[in-house]
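Could you help me review a protein record that somebody else here produced? Here is the record exactly as it was handed to me:
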Amino acid sequence: MASAQDVRGMFKRFRILVVGRAMAGKTTLLQKVCNATEKPEIFDGHGNKISADVVRGSTDRGYHDINNELVFRSSPGFVFHDSCGFEAGGEDEFQTMKKFISERASARILDQRVHAIWRAIISMRLKYCIPMDEYHRAITTAEERFFSECDTSNVPVIAVFTKFDALSAVALGDLRRTPGLTRKDVYERTPERAEEIFANANIWGRLCTTRHPPKDYIRLARMNIDETDCGPLLERTMGALDDEALQMLLTSTQRMNLELCITFAVKKVVMAYIKRACQGSLQVSEEECILMQKDIAKWFPHTGVSQMISASDNHW
């Protein structure tokens, strides 16, 4: 199995396409992913930095050049592309997005591929952001068209329902109008009621019946709170990637979430050794223990463990 460093040498950066309406919480989402508070730096398709003043006028209106690259100094391994919620534009904007996805999903230059939409570019990743403070129209015609007409090839799409706490506010209001409930009852039942509203809207079910459905979804809330992180989103993204090399690239790119590294080290390495042991095909030896250590360490590229094990001949 290639190491995370080897994968980084092949692909350089993890590239994600973010699609969603204006005011869907996309900027906050990316800041959380990159552990940043500042705005991203913007580069054109040739790597030239673009002054924020040049693009501010269009971004304030919800328009973006999808080919521009958004990079945070705190996480330079992530490259984001922002396609404004194309309902803000027209047919030209929609076709531009489809062309971008088609070209970047199979780009001959590996470093130009979109790895996830949060949709490889080897990776193009698509995060399709749907704000839950507008849950009654959470799936618009434009979004249904996206999932019906945009073939993302082998690039997985993650549907990200942002501002899910707004749905909790709706649930709280419903329960307050319910006779016979105490204040304690109302607050205790609010999370369950929010889940019911989401389920009754059948949003995920509707997305799954489209021609090009998302591979997974996640709901995010309280993104305005400093302590909130996007670990679950990164984990869903990792799980949606079919290529282990891309999973390792994402592990190598993100620097803050040690839990994510642990989760996939267990899933990909420890469980494989346990399976071999149950099948009787694993011989417990010093050599096998060292190999397992090295395989586990590959999922922790920023801890120095990989380098320590590679440089050491110490056994268990």
